[in-house]
Design a protein that fits this description.
By secondary structure, the protein is α/β, with parallel strands linked by helices. It has two domains: 210 residues, D-Maltodextrin-Binding Protein, domain 2 (3-Layer(aba) Sandwich); 232 residues, 3-Layer(aba) Sandwich (D-Maltodextrin-Binding Protein, domain 2). The chain contains 17 helices and 13 strands. The strands form four sheets. The protein has a five-stranded mixed sheet with strand order 8-5-9-4-10. The chain has a four-stranded mixed sheet with strand order 2-1-3-12. Helix 3 crosses helix 4 and helix 16 packs antiparallel against helix 17. It is globular. The chain starts with 5 loop residues before the first helix and ends with a helix.
Length: 495
């Protein structure tokens, strides 16, 4: 993904404060000082704006968006009015500004699909020839299957989008493609559910002080590139306390970490290590390359976390709410949280800190932020009445979000409303800049039942000491399934 400059975001936030209707367009021409004669010399000229002069005569632009309990439709549709909330008002102003700029009128309908129904919903819509919608927004897991069947328009072929602009997440979209060329799934600043579904760790600063000392020490580890499993696991173990004195770990005790079960909570661990699950051939097609010493090492580190004496799982099965347990001071760390959950703990009495998931080891170059597989992205249905208009509107929405909504959400909400210490901003930047998508997580269900997930998850659930059998039992089917996926994609391209 293209990384955003924090200075640029801050400047954009200032623009938000001074612009009443979504801000003004950034000046792309650099100028020098005016000479004595009063003339200004242009030193750099840019290519013409791809949206310049576009106007669609009041056309209704129909968006079919998700509005489930876990969606981020409030950042897409908003309330439709000014409320005094910085983020909502930025969404309202952005939508109004794009409507006025392109002379379109937004109309929203809600799909409300369960995550397992998204693909079928798209398939039914497109194969029926329904041209009602100009843009679809729903989870990337279901959309990935639809993309292989060419149920979406290839946005890379449109003249009204420019994926090199900072408002698009170019690397993310590239990694979601089958061949690095065709773009069926749209990821940019407008589709903020991807940011909301980015995994991060929270830690209780007061408890850290009691158990380990200076709570800023963990921040320093992150900044030094030394925040690793080997640094983290002793912290988890040190924080455990048998509160009720019954000699066994149970829900009444204090833990080093709590997780919501050994399932989806494993995603940020599995995909956050330095393991090449796939590589790309000369055509950009994926091939399976996951098995080896790096994977075995990562599994052992994950197992040490999940089966540590200081970790307790499956609180929901014990009738105790995970977030409630943490908010009451029941653990030092909590996993399974995403940036959109940060506000849940806003009223905690204890101060909390936010940090990225650790590196596999110090040899790993960067911290990796995993986006949950059900994060919602965009797509232009293959039956869209005019894909060029869809592209232009998405371009304008991503631009406007980059300049107004994103700074309001990122700076004012994440960094200011929920921050409890001076380091939170830097840590959120670290988490944000590490966001990446793993092809294997999103497309994995289409070859051998998520071999990358289950090679770790199957032995992890049993505290097994080896991943070999879990991998070998799926390898042949995975290789075949991945090859079939590529073949299906190539075949559908020629239809």
């Amino acid at each position: 993904m293209k990384k955003r400059s924090i200075l640029a975001l801050f400047l954009a936030m200032l623009m938000l404060a001074s612009c009443g209707s979504g801000g003004t367009e950034r000046e792309d021409t650099e100028k020098v000082e005016t000479d004595p004669a009063g003339e200004t010399e242009t030193v750099q000229e840019t290519e013409p704006d791809i949206l310049a002069g576009l106007s669609y005569d009041g056309r209704t632009f129909r968006i079919l968006t998700s509005d489930t309990d876990i969606s981020s439709n409030d950042l897409i549709e908003g309330t439709g009015e000014l409320t005094g909330d910085n983020v909502n008002d930025a969404v309202y102003s952005r939508n109004l500004a794009v409507e006025e700029t392109l002379d379109v009128r937004f109309a929203y309908e809600h799909a409300n699909n369960a995550w397992g129904d998204v693909y079928k919903s798209v398939q039914t819509l497109v194969l029926s020839g329904d041209s009602t919608y100009d843009l679809l927004i729903d989870d990337q897991l279901g959309f990935s299957t639809a993309s292989i069947e060419m149920l979406f328009y290839d946005a890379a072929s449109l003249s009204t989008v420019d994926f090199t602009e900072d408002c698009w997440w170019g690397d993310y979209m590239r990694n979601l493609s089958i061949d690095y060329k065709h773009v069926y799934l749209l990821v940019g600043d407008y589709f903020m559910d991807v940011l909301n579904h980015s995994h991060a760790l929270l830690y209780n600063r007061a408890m850290y002080t009691d158990v380990l000392g200076d709570p800023d020490a963990v921040y320093q580890l992150v900044q030094d590139g030394a925040w690793t499993y080997d640094a983290w696991i002793p912290m988890i173990e040190a924080a455990y306390q048998d509160v009720n004195g019954d000699g066994k770990a149970d829900k009444d005790d204090r833990f080093g970490m709590i997780v919501g079960g050994i399932g989806g909570s494993s995603f940020p661990f599995t995909y956050g290590g330095d393991v090449p699950y796939i590589t790309r051939d000369e055509k950009g097609y994926p091939t399976l390359t996951m098995y080896g010493d790096r994977l075995a090492d990562l599994y052992e580190k994950i197992r040490r976390v999940f089966w540590s004496s200081g970790t307790f799982t499956n609180y929901t099965e014990n009738g105790l709410d995970l977030h409630e347990k943490y908010a009451s001071g029941g653990a030092l760390f909590i996993s399974g949280c995403q940036l959109g959950d940060f506000g849940t703990f806003r009223d905690m009495e204890q101060e909390i800190g936010i940090i990225p998931y650790p590196k596999q080891d110090e040899a790993q170059r960067n911290y990796i932020t995993v986006v949950h597989d059900t994060a919602e992205v965009g797509a232009i249905p293959a039956t869209a009445a005019d894909p060029d208009i869809s592209g232009a509107v998405c371009q304008a929405l991503c631009r406007a979000t980059h300049k107004t909504v994103l700074p309001a959400y990122y700076e004012m909400s994440l960094k200011i409303k929920y921050a409890r210490d001076n380091y939170t901003s830097a840590m959120i930047d670290q988490i944000h800049d590490g966001i990446m998508d793993m092809f294997s997580l999103v497309y994995g269900a289409q070859y051998a039942n998520n071999i990358t997930t289950w090679t770790i998850l199957e032995p992890l659930q049993k505290n097994g000491d080896s991943i070999t059998s879990a991998y070998e039992s799926r390898q042949a089917a995975a290789v075949t399934g991945l090859a079939d996926l590529v073949t299906a994609f190539e075949t559908n391209l020629t239809k």
